[in-house]
From TrEMBL:
Phylogenetic classification of the source organism: Bacteria, Bacillati, Actinomycetota, Actinomycetes, Kitasatosporales
The keyword Membrane is annotated on this UniProt entry: yes
Regions crossing the membrane: 21-38, 44-63, 75-99, 105-123, 130-149, 161-180
Protein name, UniProt field: Integral membrane protein
UniProt keywords, alphabetically: Membrane, Transmembrane, Transmembrane helix
Length: 186
């Protein structure tokens, strides 16, 4: 059994999620900065970053599911794992067709992952620190729709996809700080 899974109850889950959310914040910022440097074309770096982001989401959802076993069903996190894995494959394939195809796949993923994040946040309200996750999930749904619409632009770029990571990272950071109170209840 991992250390994360062994922590008791809500305070243990909050502590594990707090650490995870700090990592997610750092990853999002670094990823966005790297993505901004290559957002106008689909070179090797952009393709790598575009596939890496949903794969990172898979890893984060696995850690989250393990950490939250004691506080509720991780079923939605398993949905997120599957959707993000399919997205990584879909983005890799879409990269061979151009930026509009990537934006459509990225947008569909943002919508589904945002809905999952919103619902998970609502179910974790008693833990505290979840309103940023709820808001972030809602914003993700709207951003996903904008990516799909943006795919129809005359000269679409991946700049909005890069920018998408920053607010999400900030919401993870805010939630991590707010979860500190719950984590200290050990």
């Amino acid at each position: 059994m991992s250390t994360i899974a062994a922590l008791p109850g809500i305070s243990g889950t909050a502590s594990a999620l707090r650490r995870l959310y700090f990592v997610r914040f750092a990853f999002a910022v670094v990823w966005a900065l790297a993505m901004f440097t290559t957002a106008s074309n689909l070179g090797l770096l952009a393709v790598t970053l575009l596939v890496l982001y949903p794969l990172f989401d898979v890893a984060a959802a696995i850690i989250d599911a393990r950490a939250s076993r004691t506080t509720g069903s991780p079923a939605l996190l398993y949905v997120n794992i599957a959707v993000s894995l399919i997205t990584a494959i879909g983005v890799a394939i879409a990269c061979t067709s151009g930026i509009p195809a990537v934006l459509r796949v990225w947008g569909a993923w943002a919508i589904v992952a945002g809905l999952v994040q919103l619902i998970v946040g609502v179910t974790r309200r008693e833990m505290g620190g979840q309103w940023p996750m709820i808001i972030s999930g809602g914003i993700s749904v709207l951003a996903g729709a904008s990516f799909i619409i943006g795919a129809t632009a005359d000269n679409p770029t991946l700049t909005n996809a890069a920018g998408y990571a920053i607010p999400g990272g900030i919401f993870f950071l805010i939630s991590a700080f707010r979860l500190g109170r719950t984590a200290k209840r050990n």
